[in-house]
């Protein structure tokens, strides 16, 4: 599914984010940038040790929740990996929505600053961090929809969902936010 605004677009797809051939792949990292499971494990496994070596060297103090940092992409088919730290879901009253929004926003700022024309996002915080999928999809897609008309880059923002059921949730939210044209 996709929605277009001039020469820019938001796309939803089902797949493994490590196989995406876009300029930037976003990682669902933790604040210590220590690696882990899920997307993080898959990205470091597929990208090789160069990514962790670089993040350790450049960001020894890690990355705060709600923010993101950028590195090279090792062996992945991308120029950069952005390591975004989404919030751990704690029931919704601990500022989770703002933190998730700022994590997505920071990724888009970094992508634009590196003149990247395409970026692939996973569903940040929706696995180990337990953020309810529909609420996370609303934050993710609203942030992208607000970004697109006000910025030249990236031209393509692709959300890569791991299976059918998160894809359906993102698709339903994107329809609700943009109409089902
Ligand atoms: N491609 C696309 N999506 C994936 C993939 C993949 N290869 N693997 C998992 N997903 P998670 P979080 C989906 O747990 O919730 C790590 O240990 C998954 O089904 O990767 O932000 C880090 O080190 C889910 O919908 O990220 C942190 O400690 C979504 O991606 C912590 O987990 C995000 O799941 C971050 O947790």
TrEMBL record:
Pfam families: Macro. PROSITE patterns: MACRO (PS51154). Residues 1-178 form the Macro domain. SUPFAM superfamilies: Macro domain-like (SSF52949). PANTHER family: GANGLIOSIDE INDUCED DIFFERENTIATION ASSOCIATED PROTEIN 2-RELATED, MACRO DOMAIN-CONTAINING PROTEIN. This is RNase III inhibitor.
């Amino acid at each position: 599914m996709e929605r277009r605004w001039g020469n820019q677009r938001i796309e939803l797809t089902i797949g493994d984010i490590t196989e995406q051939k876009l300029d930037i792949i976003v990682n669902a990292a933790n604040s210590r940038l220590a690696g882990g499971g899920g997307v993080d494990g898959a990205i470091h496994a597929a990208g090789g040790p160069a990514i962790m070596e670089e993040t350790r060297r450049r960001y020894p103090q890690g990355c705060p929740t709600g923010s993101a940092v950028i590195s090279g992409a090792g062996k992945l088919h991308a120029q950069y990996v952005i390591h975004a730290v989404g919030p751990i879901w704690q029931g919704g009253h601990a500022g989770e929505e703002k933190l998730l929004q700022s994590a997505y926003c920071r990724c888009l700022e970094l992508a634009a600053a590196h003149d990247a024309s395409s970026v692939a996002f996973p569903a940040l915080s929706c696995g180990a961090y337990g953020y309810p999928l529909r609420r996370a999809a609303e934050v993710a897609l609203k942030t992208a929809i607000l970004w697109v008309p006000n910025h030249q880059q990236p031209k393509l923002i692709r959300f890569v969902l791991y299976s059918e059921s998160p894809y359906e949730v993102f698709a339903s939210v994107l329809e609700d936010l943009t109409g089902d044209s």
